[in-house]
Amino acid sequence: MATLATQFKAALGRIEPEIDAKNAAKAHKDVTEVLEADGWLTDLGVSTFLIGSYGRDVSIKRVKDVDVFARLTKATASLRPGKTLDHVTDVLQDAFPDRVERQHRSVKIEFPDYDLSVDVVIARPCVDHPDDHWQIPERIEEDGRASWVETNPTRMGELTTAANKEFLLSADNPNSGVYVPMVKLIRQIRRTWVDDQPGGYFFEVLTYHAFEDLQPDENTVADYLCAILRGIADRLPDYVDEGPDDPTLDDRTVKTKATAKQIEAAADRIAEAADLAEEALEEQDTCRSATLWRDLLGPTQNVDQPEDVFPLPDYCNADGTTKSSGTRVKGAPAVPAGRGRYA
Amino acid sequence: MSHSLAAATDRWREEMVALGFSDDGEQLRGSVRWVGSGGGPATARVGITPTPAFPFAPPQVLILDAGARLEPTFHVDENGAPCLWEDEWPVDEAPWRNPHELLARIADWMEQTAAGWPDDDSCDLERYLEQDPTALVLYDASALVFDTPVRTTIGPTSGTVTVTAERRRIRDVDGRRRSRKNNRLAWVADIGVVTRPLRSWNDVAAALDHRATEVDRLISFGVVSLLLLRYTHGGAPGALALRVRRAAADIDVVACESADTSAATRVMRAGPAAPQLADVPIAVVGCGAIGSFAADLLFRSGARYLTLVDGERLRPGNIVRHLARVEHVGRPKTEAVRACLSGVDPDVSRVRTRGPLYDLDDAVALVRGHQVVLDATGSARASSLLATAADRVGRELGHTVVSACVQRDGDVLRVDRMPQRRSEAHLPALPLLDDTTGLRERGCGSPVSPTPPGAVVAAAGLALRVVLDEATRECALPASVVQVQSPQPEPPYHHRGEITSADSRDTTHAAAS
Q: Are residues B250 and B281 in the same domain?
């Protein structure tokens, strides 16, 4: 049994997007200032907040894009999203020349200095449930009209916070939430073991369901990871045709760009990963176990200088053997004279 | 940390997890069962963090929830964390590396705390208050004056303060134009048995009892700035020095390290023979290399009735192999040594100095007047005089001459005692080798021995053993004791180690039979 808690703590540190977080916050602030300085948008009650994995604090190194939800709190059912997006594009273009690109239902701004982009998604209060949901344009026609689709981007953040309070490493330590770290590790494993699709959010939802289904209560990150990864591996084949339930909206499932074949392939790979995690946990030799955990988590990605996410203990060789303990004779006492000395 | 220790620490964490502890990579959290003060079982929640000092020091332990009523008193650090082990352990024997022993110790700490530490006699009240690491308060425990303001003086070094026995009258301190002598006064009190740490002025005031009002007044007036509280804990005596100052709403209390300057404390580390040695007259003839260090060791061991005999002045070239320092150059060696002894204990009133031995009558008189005469001259003439004197009057008086030297440039350290007792014989002499190095000091006629300082100090230590053996009348050591630092061609000096005339005789007898 090798849970290697200090190594897992270091591993989580290595995928933590610290610098990205600072840059993302600065980019978000710059975009918001521009939007809130515009009179027309101000009249529509523009108010922004971060959504996406970065907004929920479950992103991992590197963060390449940041989603900003631009709520038009005073917008009515007659608001034309095409016109609105055009205006938002113009406003941002003036502020960030040559860095703005109009997308189908959002506006993308590049921040080359930070090597990331910000996607501004406009939203209006849901016509039927204005207090509960928002609506974003599903597809904008050439005349600027659009059909709207319900979304609840804040809900996933709320669920994340609640799950991180519920699932703890230590019941008497409210700061020992293990749900968020687990989402990050699962996202890292997806990057290492799965080809592009399904994406990170799909696996985040799978992680959420695994926690809800299994209600795990473990003492270490390693134990949690084994349990959750196995839970995902067991359920993933069920979602080849239809994604998992969307935890943020009743009677909806999570959509993915992944094909059925891609999901089947992902299911096979995640099953392999779960087997590897269990082997690592059961391994009695610490160094051998550490190399298995290292292989499970792979290297950091989208960075100039990738490194293994899971650092081996200093006393381990890269091949899983244990380093020589030095010149001291094995079994020789550190203090040959024992206790009761004076000098 | 070495690889093996790091691996062992990881295994230790895994064992803690196997015992039900959670591990977030930094702190381990789990339960510890213990027996509460009422005898009922309790389960505490604890957090255990191996600090960077682990496993050379215990992990930091925090009681998150004792699970029963528990008010920490003694054996806690400034953060309230339990101090589980006050003593140090070799890392490979350290009990905290065994998770079961660690948890048992935590349980024992809680049980002892709940019971009020009934068998505890630690006197470390300083640790429970804010501390001033720069201050040291000195006091003579045998001459304390209680329950009145007393004068303090600046101590021997920066940051030290001495509490004197000089009373200052309240009238003196009340006036507007106070004498400087009445500033920074101390108040000494005996607060008796302590059952819990003092953590604030309120605790101190409660311990001072009826004296608290007056002490508070004097502190508020800016007159008393130091408290010295004598107490006992578990039968052991202790003292707590506190720097005190009136703050806005309260009195600030800061603990200072304190130390007793009384003779009893100063000789505490002198060894078991110290009380016996104090009145034994001992002469050290020759205050050069061996003699100066031997005199120092004798003085530190409790000998106070000393006669230092030498006729030479201290030269700069002597210093590297001598007790004295550069500032003593030019003084008679005897005076230089005496000055050094006064740095150990200022009372050198019974340490006398005199010039060199003159003749046999002089030597006989010296042996008559001293129970032990240490000959550290290295001089054939002086040693002959003393040996003859010992032979003449030593046996009759029970006085001895102990002759110490180094030979062969420090390869052999030798001490002979005279006169011999019945059937004793000294070890044979080492022949003189004609291999002098030719070292000579400019303007000084006699050759300089290349013996290194370490051999000189070792020879002084050997001489001390024999002198103490005679001074305490134990008489357990044979006539010759030799330490061979480097093997010599001549038996019995051809093996490294210690040989004595008794060993040599046994060997001779065994060979003869």
A: no
